[in-house]
Design brief:
It is built from five helices and five strands. The protein has helices at 44-56, 74-87, 103-109, 111-114, 121-125; strands at residues 19-26, 30-39, 61-72, 92-96, 116-118. Helix 1 packs parallel to helix 2 (74-87). The termini are far apart. A five-stranded mixed sheet has the order 1-2-3-4-5. By secondary structure, it is of the alpha/beta class.
Length: 127
């Protein structure tokens, strides 16, 4: 049996998180959350936490960029819908999604009609 001290430093952290979220504050009260990875039941809280913090700041516009997401399960869609509901009248929440991994599941569930979805970040920013 190997003791934890004998493991190389990279082996101590366990599996890498399946979702990463980078937060960027832009001019005009715009916050962009760039999400990468796979959003499923296990990783959905890794998206929910930064979304909750961003909404607490009450930005004018909150953009969730799902361009680098390779899988979006129903748990991830639930997090996005809950965030959209919390945004209410105070924050214009926009999603960036295209393709079979992100847009297609939302289209099949009817969420594409309920949420503001853009094909790329420039369009979501209004450029």
């Amino acid at each position: 049996m190997t003791s934890p001290d004998a493991l190389p430093p990279g082996d101590r952290s366990g599996p890498a998180p399946s979702v990463t979220v980078n937060v960027e504050h832009r001019e005009g009260g715009v916050v962009v959350l760039s999400v990468a990875g796979e959003i499923d039941l296990v990783s959905a809280p890794s998206l929910e936490e930064p979304l909750t913090h961003a909404l607490a700041e009450r930005p004018k516009i909150l953009i969730v960029d799902l361009t680098e997401v390779g899988f979006l399960a129903s748990a991830g869609m639930s997090v996005l819908v809950a965030a959209h509901n919390r945004a209410g009248e105070h924050t214009d929440m926009r999603l960036v999604a295209s393709g079979s991994a992100t847009f297609r599941p939302m289209e099949l569930t009817g969420l594409a009609e309920a949420l503001a979805i853009y094909p790329d970040l420039n369009q979501a920013l209004g450029n």
